[in-house]
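thought: user wants a sequence for this fold. calling inverse folding tool.
action: design(structure=
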C-alpha cells in the first residue's frame, strides 16, 4: 500500500526528520519533529540552512538541532524549535518593552 492508504493513528514520533521528497531540490532544508504531541497534533518545524561554513554533515546538523530542543529551561519536555530561538524571542520582546517608544 501507498503511505496515504495506510491507516496510521497518532502523531509523528519525536526525532523524525524529513529531508527529501517534500523539501527544496535546490536549497538545504529539512523538517524536524522534535517533540511529542501532548494534546492535539504536533507541528514539525522547517529549517533552512543559509550558510554552512563548517561543512557539517547533514546527520550531525539534525542531531544537534534535535538536542538543542531539549535544553529550554522554561519547559521540562522538548520544545518544537531549538532553545536559542526561544531565548532570542524573549530578548527581543524585552528590548521592545524597554526601548519600544524610542526605536520601534
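)
observation: tool returned 104 residues.
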Amino acid at each position: 500500500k501507498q503511505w496515504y492508504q495506510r491507516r496510521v493513528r497518532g502523531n509523528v514520533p519525536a526525532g523524525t526528520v524529513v529531508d527529501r521528497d517534500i523539501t527544496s531540490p535546490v536549497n538545504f532544508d529539512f523538517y524536524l519533529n522534535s517533540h511529542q504531541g501532548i494534546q492535539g497534533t504536533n507541528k514539525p518545524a522547517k529549517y533552512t540552512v543559509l550558510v554552512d561554513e563548517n561543512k557539517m554533515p547533514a546527520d550531525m546538523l539534525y542531531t544537534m538541532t534535535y538536542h538543542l530542543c531539549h535544553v529550554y529551561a522554561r519547559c521540562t519536555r522538548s520544545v518544537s524549535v531549538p532553545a536559542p530561538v526561544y531565548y532570542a524571542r524573549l530578548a527581543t520582546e524585552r528590548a521592545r518593552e524597554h526601548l519600544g517608544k524610542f526605536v520601534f
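thought: summarizing for user.
answer: Here is the designed sequence. The first strand starts at residue 16 and ends at 18.
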